[in-house]
Amino acid sequence: MNIRLHHAAQVVGEATEALVSNGTTRERLLLASKILLGIQPREFDGFPLLQSRWDEIDARFSKVQDPKVGSYRRTVEKMSGPKMGELCELILSLDREIRTTE
Questions:
Q1: Which of 13, 16, 19, 49 makes a 20 to 30 Å CA pair with 32?
Q2: How far apart are CA 26 and CA 41, in angstroms?
Q3: What pTM was computed for the model?
Q4: How many beta carbons lie within 10 A of that of residue 96, not counting itself?
Q5: Which residues lie below 8 Å from residue 86, measured CB to CB, with a gap of 6+?
Q6: Per-residue pLDDT tens for 46-99?
């Protein structure tokens, strides 16, 4: 397996575990967003479907810019419940797609 994809699989797997742990949706998504900051550029090189999914997740986490606390955190803090649910589903979908690619 590609070493970059292997690393991304571990990071996304940890984020998925955070999403299914205890706490509110917002708390779980905040934790997952911190974990996903570990994704490095080019980790999905050679896997256009995974790259596309990651780009969508990254864009959704980056809607609200805040240099003090970071865009991922500030975006999650301002998200509505349905939007948080959609983002959680995208992360879970990315995890499933990575597992089928491995």
A1: 49
A2: 26
A3: 0.92
A4: 12
A5: 60
A6: 999 999 999 999 999 999 998 888 999 999 999 999 999 999 999 999 999 999
